[in-house]
Amino acid sequence: MSLDRIDIEGTFNFRDIGGSPTSAGELRVGTGKVYRSDGLAQLTDRSRVDIRALGIRTVVDLRDVGERSKLPDALEGLEVEHIELPIFDDHFFPAKQLSREEMAKVAEATGMDLSDRSLSKIYDLMIGHFGPRLAKAVDVVAQRCEGGVVFHCSAGKDRTGVVAAFILTLLGVGRHEILEEYAITSQHLSGGFLENIIRNFSDAGISGNLAETATAAPPELMAKILDSIDAQYAKSGVESYLLEHGMDPASPDRLRGQLLTPADREQTVRD
């Protein structure tokens, strides 16, 4: 499993999602095609050279407009398709920060409580209200993974973490490996990232326990999310959830066809 971060200057949590074994023991998730990251606003000339060398042709930005406008991806000179696909559909971090009264009106009209920024509430909101956006993100990765794709949010752990967990689940990766891949984020986001992201989150209007919101990736939280989806969608769990929310039925097979590789071949490449 590729748990180590890739040293891309200006990022803290850039890594390949490949390398994990699957339930079909002879297959593994291939490396060198799909990457996940925290924000790309601090890229340098050196890091853009490194991203080009990875063969990345598509950058998928999962952040809301309020985050993107303050810290746009620094992709100058890279020949990439830049796709803005806000998982929260620009509701959580809008262009203009909502007052408490405006948040209360949104909650009354939609059932979305935007005032509670605790991790558990963020995940409940994401799964409960933005399934179509998550399904679209999986579709985009499936459509473009052959050419190399990176998807990211601000910290590269919540929105990015859920999309990564969904893709790995569709590829047949076991729950233990998925939770390990998710939780390693906490190690990558220690140190200098905390100071940077707390400032960025404050600018974007995130309040409350910023340290926890910014860096914590407790595996039990992801386990709870995946367990709840499995319980509600007993037929095929995450795949059924995504299909119900509009995922292209061809996306799972497209992902498997592009990303699964014989385990012995992958090991040879990695050696």
UniProtKB/TrEMBL annotation:
The organism is Brevibacterium koreense
**What is the similarity comment for this entry?**
Belongs to the protein-tyrosine phosphatase family.
Family matches, as SUPFAM superfamilies: (Phosphotyrosine protein) phosphatases II
Q: Report a single Gene Ontology molecular function.
A: protein tyrosine phosphatase activity
Q: What is its EC number?
A: 3.1.3.48
Record domain Tyrosine specific protein phosphatases: where: 132-165
Pfam families, per the entry: Y_phosphatase3
Q: Which UniProt keywords apply?
A: Hydrolase
InterPro entries to which the protein is assigned, alphabetical: Prot-tyrosine_phosphatase-like, Tyr/Ser_Pase_IphP-type, Tyr_Pase_AS, Tyr_Pase_dom
Query: Where is the segment annotated Disordered?
Result: 249-271
State the protein's name: Tyrosine-protein phosphatase
